[in-house]
């Protein structure tokens, strides 16, 4: 772990080149935010009612037009006298009971389709209106939402493993290619079931691009900047979410919107497909023993950061040959630009002494499987805790949203409220997670979300309206903070050799939690109370488990499974990185 930190310091540290690459990785998050937030927009249900069928009316009423025809054909519901969304009035058979003013004798299902109140979420045409996914077919909407989230889950698991086997850059480029093709295919889908399959696959490819980008950005940053650059990407993703309704109002057709999203993804491929904007992660190359490729990338970093790799001053040579790796690795990231640099050479045939030492043992890349976690003593437990934390953060937010906006047809309020609170949660994490540590902030967020959910569950009918509103907003804010911080902490806990697969499992758990919300909608929300109880119980349980997590603030990223097992937990209150002397469990012996 310290060896890799010294080599990155030799290439200019977190200098100009790595800063620009990390900042440039924010821009693709806008497109990924557009794609992920398109789900509620495409499945928004507009207000609707049956299309009147004059053939079903008595002869004396068939000449009616406009509101009169609607009043004679569609029953009215509730005090507001709103038209029924799924029923038509049934009249007696003509001639059975003559009457000058025929009266309806019952109701019947719609026979000529539906009329919709448009635009819905800015769209004049959506999958819901095109294929009439309402009334008896309304279950298809939550099915499509669930399949899209499950596609993200599958993509996180499979393509996260691919990140560790084929590299971050390869998975990112391949995912963008597939996402562009599948996004364009969605715009041409001829049936609902074709759209269902394409949304599932499209979600998986977008998950691969997001995961590869997240891991590569994290491995570019040094410890003091990891939080800021990771959370900054989240703010750009929120910006994409906020832009989407405006684009929908501009194009007003879901097919054009999907085509525009595919075009944006293709533009990302034109720019970020080049190694200059998205190079392979040198941390991953060094951890897997691919020293020649790592040497070329580090040489480029050194030149772009204004460091002269051929400058062999006496101080630098002493670092290259005599200084201990530990002191260089710990102090390098604390000095701006890494003033003490190590000589690098551009040609793979004459690498710097450190790279030559690393490549002396083996010339073949060494890959690791996620199953290696089973041989660790503490890392698998940390991954399991963070997976459950991500699951709770993703699943419990639906309970808070429904407490805030009970109506199914409301779109803009929950959409912008969730996006605004996500941005607020990210800003709060930037301000607190480096100052107080990851573990205390995660503990506080889990506690707030669990208690808010418990109070809403136990006393929502007895609490004043403003109290319910406050608890719902506070719980939604805390749940989003828990999700964001669980992902960051998982990326810092898992070692480089399996970081993609480990982070993919934690991210996938979050999408699994989000998929439970449409699952209850399939049965008409009859399982909502049970879902609320389950996630509230899990949130309370996670409180005890968060105390067992290690603190990663200010620490270098672990490279191997042995490095990850050495992560320890500092005192919960007033702990500093240099006081990290409380082992959670004895680390496993290296094989």
Summarize the structure.
With 591 residues, this protein is mostly helical. Helices cover 61% and strands 3% of the residues.
Features:
591 residues, mainly alpha, two-stranded antiparallel ribbon, 23 helices, 6 strands, 61% helix, 3% strand, elongated, disordered C terminus
Radius of gyration: 28 Å
Oligomer: single chain
- Enumerate the strands of the largest sheet in spatial order, edge to edge or round the barrel: 1-6
Distance between the termini: 18 Å
Largest sheet data: 2 strands, antiparallel
Instruction: Catalogue the unreliable spans.
Output: 312-352, 355-362, 574-591
Mean pLDDT metric: 82
Q: Helical residue percent?
A: 55-70%
- Encode the helix/strand succession as letters: HHHHEHEEEEEHHHHHHHHHHHHHHHHHH
Tell how many strands the DSSP assignment holds.
6
Helix segment tally: 23
Structural class by secondary-structure content: mainly alpha
Relative strand content: under 5%
Shape: elongated
Protein architecture, described:
With 591 residues, the chain is mainly alpha-helical. 61% of the residues lie in helices and 3% in strands. The protein contains 23 helices and 6 strands. It has helices spanning 2-10, 16-24, 27-36, 38-42, 66-73, 127-130, 140-166, 168-187, 192-220, 223-251, 254-272, 282-287, 291-304, 314-321, 325-332, 353-359, 379-404, 412-436, 438-459, 465-493, 499-522, 528-546, 561-565; strands at 48-50, 76-77, 82-83, 87-90, 106-109, 114-116. It has a two-stranded antiparallel ribbon. A two-stranded antiparallel sheet has the order 2-3. Strands 4-5 form a two-stranded antiparallel ribbon. It is elongated. The protein starts with a helix and ends in a 26-residue tail after the last helix. The model is unreliable at 312-352, 355-362 and 574-591 (pLDDT under 50).
């Amino acid at each position: 772990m310290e060896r890799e930190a010294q080599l990155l310091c030799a290439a200019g540290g977190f200098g100009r080149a790595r800063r620009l690459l990390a900042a440039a990785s924010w821009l693709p998050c806008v497109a990924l935010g557009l794609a992920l937030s398109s789900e509620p927009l495409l499945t928004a249900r507009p207000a609707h009612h049956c299309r009147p069928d004059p053939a079903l009316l008595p002869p004396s009423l068939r000449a009616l037009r406009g509101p009169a025809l609607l009043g004679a054909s569609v029953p009215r519901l509730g005090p507001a006298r709103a038209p029924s969304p799924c029923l038509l009035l049934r009249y007696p058979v003509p001639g059975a009971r003559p009457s000058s003013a025929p009266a309806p004798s019952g109701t019947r299902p719609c026979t000529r389709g539906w009329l919709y109140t448009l635009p819905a979420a800015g769209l004049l045409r959506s999958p819901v209106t095109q294929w009439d996914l309402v009334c008896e077919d309304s279950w298809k909407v939550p099915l499509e939402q669930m399949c899209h989230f499950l596609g993200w889950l599958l993509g996180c698991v499979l393509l996260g493993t691919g990140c560790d086997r084929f590299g971050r850059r390869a998975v990112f480029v391949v995912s963008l290619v597939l996402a562009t093709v599948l996004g364009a295919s969605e715009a041409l889908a001829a049936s609902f079931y074709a759209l269902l399959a394409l949304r599932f696959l499209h979600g998986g490819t977008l998950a691969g691009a997001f995961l590869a980008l997240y891991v590569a950005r994290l491995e570019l940053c040094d410890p003091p900047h990891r939080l800021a650059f990771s959370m900054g990407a989240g703010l750009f993703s929120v910006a994409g979410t906020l832009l989407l309704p405006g684009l929908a109002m501009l194009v007003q057709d879901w097919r054009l919107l999907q085509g525009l999203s595919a075009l944006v993804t293709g533009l990302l491929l034109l720019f970020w497909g080049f190694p200059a904007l998205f190079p392979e992660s040198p941390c991953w190359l060094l951890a897997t023993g691919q020293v020649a490729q790592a040497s070329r990338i580090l040489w480029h970093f050194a030149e772009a950061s204004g460091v002269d790799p051929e400058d062999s001053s006496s101080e630098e040579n002493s670092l290259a040959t005599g200084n201990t790796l530990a002191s260089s690795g710990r102090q390098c990231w604390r000095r701006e630009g890494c003033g003490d640099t190590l000589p690098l050479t551009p040609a793979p045939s004459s690498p710097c002494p450190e790279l030559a030492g690393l490549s002396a043992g083996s010339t073949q890349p060494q890959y690791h499987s996620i199953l290696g976690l089973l041989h660790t003593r503490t890392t698998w437990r940390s991954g399991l805790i963070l997976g459950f934390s991500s699951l709770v953060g993703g699943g419990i937010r639906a309970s808070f949203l429904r407490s805030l906006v009970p109506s199914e047809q409301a779109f803009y309020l929950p959409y912008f409220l969730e996006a605004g609170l996500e941005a607020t949660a990210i800003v709060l994490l930037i301000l607190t997670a480096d100052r107080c540590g990851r573990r205390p902030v995660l503990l506080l967020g889990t506690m707030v979300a669990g208690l808010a959910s418990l109070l809403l569950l136990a006393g929502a009918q007895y609490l004043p309206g403003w109290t319910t509103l406050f608890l719902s907003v506070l719980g939604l804010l805390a749940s989003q903070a828990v999700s964001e911080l669980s992902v960051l902490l998982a990326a810092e806990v898992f070692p480089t050799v399996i970081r993609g697969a480990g982070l993919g499992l934690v991210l996938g758990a979050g999408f699994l939690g989000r998929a439970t919300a449409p699952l209850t909608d399939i049965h008409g929300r009859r399982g909502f109370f049970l879902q609320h109880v389950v996630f509230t119980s899990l949130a309370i349980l996670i409180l005890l488990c968060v105390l067992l997590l290690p603190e990663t603030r200010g620490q270098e990223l672990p490279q191997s499974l042995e490095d990850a097992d050495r992560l320890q937990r500092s005192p919960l209150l007033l702990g500093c990185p240099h006081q990290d002397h409380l082992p959670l469990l004895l680390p496993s012996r290296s094989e």
